[in-house]
Amino acid sequence: MINDLFEARKTLKPVTRPTSKIPNMTTEEAYKLQKQLVEKLKSNGDIVAGYKLSPKTIKDAPVYGYLFESMKIAPGTVIKKTDFIDLHLENEVAFIIGQEINSSQINKPSDLKSYVKYVVPAIEMPEIRYSGDIDDVTGLDLVVDNVVASKIILGKGMSPDMVDADKVKVIMTRDGVTVNEGLSTMVEGSPWNSLFWLVKELDKKDEKLKVDYVIMTGGIAKFMDSTLGVYKATYEGLGEITFTILA
């Protein structure tokens, strides 16, 4: 199962959903399988660069996966859709960690602001690597495949003192036509709530957020197909990101 998901990243051949093979899979089992995949990716030379969250995924709670250095692409990049199995788009607000976070000193989301170096406009490009109907993919399936992390685009960051991460509005256009809109409060009520949940969840597993880690806090607008075109995402008060998707 894990070898299939690892190889799918190279062969671009979709694989069978894990929950179709293990219908009674638990959340704990899903994360154990995810860990096997992450270790395999690391042993292949990739370097962990942070975490991504997907809100309200299993029993109305978030889930997380790992980001790798190889997932980062620059604004303005031309992306070939045929380089992926089933690519999608999400607008997000990301954080760049400024100092290692000691969970015992974090009692509420606002305690995290002094640990964050930058608030960043971001695009996530999740990749569904499973065969069949996307509506059949469960939260557990997502967890096993590292929450379908694939590529991310980060814009220019701003200090948390210079921008209110809870008041970011995004408008994204494709070929000049608006195709997506959202507010940062659409993710767990606040991107800071997402980060707080992650810090506490990782603490249970003796994992910590390191300096310069990227934290993708979750989608703040609708989950979109990667239709071909020229995109521009404007994050009010924060910045913009452009990219192009070709066949």
CATH topology: Fumarylacetoacetate hydrolase, domain 2
User: How would you spell out the order of helices and strands?
Assistant: HHHEEEEEEHEEEHEEEE
Low-confidence stretches: none
By helix and strand content, what is the structural category?
Answer: alpha+beta
User: Could you name the CATH homologous superfamily?
Assistant: Fumarylacetoacetase-like, C-terminal domain
Radius of gyration: 17 Å
Number of domains in the coordinates? 1
Largest sheet: 8 strands, mixed
How many helices?
A: 5
Helix content: 10-25%
List the helices and strands and how they pair.
Elements: H1 2-11, H2 18-21, H3 27-43, E1 48-58, E2 61-68, E3 72-73, E4 78-80, E5 88-97, E6 116-125, H4 139-144, E7 151-154, E8 169-174, E9 177-183, H5 191-203, E10 214-219, E11 224-225, E12 229-235, E13 239-246
Parallel strand pairs: 1-10, 3-7, 4-13
Antiparallel strand pairs: 1-2, 5-6, 5-10, 5-11, 6-7, 8-9, 8-12, 12-13
Keywords for this entry:
single chain, alpha+beta, 8-stranded mixed beta sheet, 20% helix, Fumarylacetoacetate hydrolase, domain 2, 247 residues
Written account of the structure:
By secondary structure, this protein is an alpha+beta fold. The chain has a single domain (2-246), classed as Alpha-Beta Complex (Fumarylacetoacetate hydrolase, domain 2). Helices cover 20% and strands 34% of the residues. It contains 5 helices and 13 strands. The chain has helices at 2-11, 18-21, 27-43, 139-144, 191-203; strands at residues 48-58, 61-68, 72-73, 78-80, 88-97, 116-125, 151-154, 169-174, 177-183, 214-219, 224-225, 229-235, 239-246. The strands form 2 sheets. Strands 1, 2, 3, 5, 6, 7, 10 and 11 form an 8-stranded mixed beta sheet that branches. Strands 4-13-12-8-9 form a 5-stranded mixed beta sheet, with no helix packed on it. Helix 1 packs across helix 3 (27-43). The longest helix is centred in the first third of the chain and has 17 residues, at 27-43. The radius of gyration is 17 Å and the shape is globular. The model has no long low-confidence stretch (mean pLDDT 97).
